[in-house]
Specification:
Elements: H1 3-12, H2 14-34, E1 39-51, H3 56-74, H4 77-87, H5 93-99, E2 100-104, E3 110-117, H6 120-141, E4 150-162, H7 171-196, H8 203-210, E5 214-219, H9 238-253, E6 261-266, H10 273-285, E7 291-295, H11 303-307, H12 315-319, H13 325-328, E8 330-332, E9 337-340, H14 349-353, H15 356-368, E10 371-375, H16 384-389, E11 394-400, H17 406-418, E12 423-431, H18 433-438, H19 446-460, H20 467-471
Parallel strand pairs: 5-12, 6-10, 6-11, 7-9, 7-10, 11-12
Antiparallel strand pairs: 1-3, 1-4, 2-3, 8-9
């Protein structure tokens, strides 16, 4: 993933970042409230040296060298025992030594001591004892016979002073760390979720996997429970315009040859291929030309029920010679859309769809209709769609936003390429409304929408005689 992909993942999964931020900040606030406050007292010594022999510079150098030793004296058990003996505090030697922090600057002769404790007065008492006892202890420890006549003296120049405000916990530091950790962890989780998500969620991703253009993005629309397929109701809704865009893009996908038979399929079931086939046939019929919606899904047919047409007799009955073609083709709607339902569900759908009678029937239908939209089963579970696709002028592969896996799309495309089926493009179905609008698939003005059927009408009739001319 590139940086833009990371940013897109964080923006799309913003709720993960927000939730993680709330958790980490809440944890930091809880720790801050629960932690016992600590107070600090400080005292600063000036380490001076006087030399009976030698120069003053040598005395200063000697004092700087000795400061490192005095840092160890500040945290020694001997000084801690002396402090406890003088103050009578109810503490152990280890507690006293752990509360003292010694600091020194190698470029100066200053020695500092900071006492941190949960009780402010106890912190000040220990700092006061250090100010009183450290100087005499150092004087007793120094052996002037080995110092070349040099004497060291520790003088208190600051303190002991108690800071009235607690030095720990630091609310600003803890909350800042909580925010930083929350943002970092949240962004990491958002990117990890994006990497783990193998479904198709954008047009560029679908186009990359299928190696075919995305002809339309159709938004998700609520529908009544009894209506399994959301048919287009509003003429100028965003979904209606998306299907018109699909129709227009199909027009431009075939410039040199006419696309008369369009097969609509998907990788797996539940991705909206029947929805797409039905609505595509409707918008094609808006052009005023003869359009046939052929239900070639002989395993789980649904178009007949959703369109409200009789589907007990149809394609399968024609293929086995039980009925005539004219007896089962039904006209639907006011735009001249014709429907050939699936008919009786056969025990051998693949054999029927690949038979010579099916090829002969498709030739007959080509002579009677300008456009034939074929709804087929999904590609991966059965071979029906691949068989029918070999007789088509173009195949449209439907993928469902956030559900269809990229591997399934790739496998479906490989099946179509294996039979040399002409995949002209894909449809990203059931996308969020905001995503569809962001991608530019918004409702057009009424005038431009009315012009689309006229343009499509010229395309479907280009370089093709009309039905009455064929009859003559």
């Amino acid at each position: 993933m590139e940086m833009s992909d990371h940013l897109r993942a964080v923006r799309k999964n913003w709720w993960i970042v927000l939730l993680t931020l709330i958790v980490t900040v809440s944890a930091a606030a809880f720790v801050t409230v629960r932690e016992t406050p600590k107070y600090a007292s400080s005292v600063t010594f000036f380490v001076g040296a006087s030399a009976s022999t030698g120069t003053a510079l040598q005395a200063d150098q000697f004092a700087q060298q000795r400061i490192a030793s005095y840092v160890g004296v500040l945290t020694s058990e001997r000084l801690a025992k002396q402090i406890l003996a003088g103050t009578g505090l109810p503490m152990t030697v280890a507690e006293v030594t752990s509360s003292i922090t010694a600091t020194s600057d190698p470029n100066t002769v200053l020695l500092g001591a900071t006492v941190t404790d949960t009780h402010p007065q106890r912190s000040l008492a220990i700092a006061t004892a250090i100010a009183d006892d450290l100087g005499p202890m150092v004087a007793g420890l120094e052996d002037t016979s080995h110092a070349g006549g040099t004497q060291v003296a520790l003088t208190v120049i600051s303190g002991p002073t108690l800071n009235p405000r607690p030095v720990s916990p630091s609310k600003t530091l803890n909350l800042g760390l909580g925010i930083l950790v929350g943002l970092t962890l949240g962004a990491g989780l958002a990117i990890a979720r994006q990497l783990a998500d193998t479904t198709v969620r954008s047009g560029p991703a679908l186009q990359s996997v299928a190696s075919a253009p995305v002809l339309a993005r159709v938004s998700l629309e609520a529908r009544p429970r009894h209506q399994r397929i959301p048919l287009v109701a509003a003429a100028h809704s965003s979904r209606a315009e998306a299907y018109r865009r699909l129709r227009t893009n199909l027009m431009f996908s075939s410039v040199d040859s006419r696309m008369q038979v369009v097969v609509v399929t998907s990788s797996l079931s539940g991705e909206g291929k029947s929805t797409t086939a039905g609505n595509l046939a409707m918008v094609l019929a808006e052009a005023g030309r003869p359009v046939l919606l052929l239900e070639a899904d002989l395993r789980r047919p649904s178009l007949g029920e959703c369109l409200g047409v009789e589907s007990s007799v149809g394609l399968t009955n024609v293929l086995v010679g039980q009925v005539d073609l004219d007896d089962v083709i039904q006209e639907w709607g006011a735009d001249g859309l014709h429907v050939l339902p699936s008919g009786t569900i056969p025990p051998n759908p693949s054999e029927l769809l690949g038979s010579d009678r099916m090829r002969t029937l498709m030739t007959t239908l080509r002579g009677r209709f300008d456009v034939i939209v074929v709804d087929t089963p999904p590609l991966l579970p059965v071979t029906d769609a691949a068989i029918v696709a070999t007789q088509a002028d173009g195949v449209v592969l439907v993928a469902r936003h956030g559900r269809t896996r990229r591997d399934d799309v790739a496998a479906a495309v490989d099946l179509l390429r294996a039979v040399e089926a002409p995949l002209v493009g894909t449809v990203l179905n059931m996308t969020p409304e905001r995503a569809s609008s962001r991608d530019g698939y918004h409702p057009y003005a009424t005038a431009s929408a009315d012009q689309l059927p006229t343009r499509a009408e010229h395309w479907w009739t280009r370089s093709r005689p009309h039905a009455h001319e064929l009859a003559e």
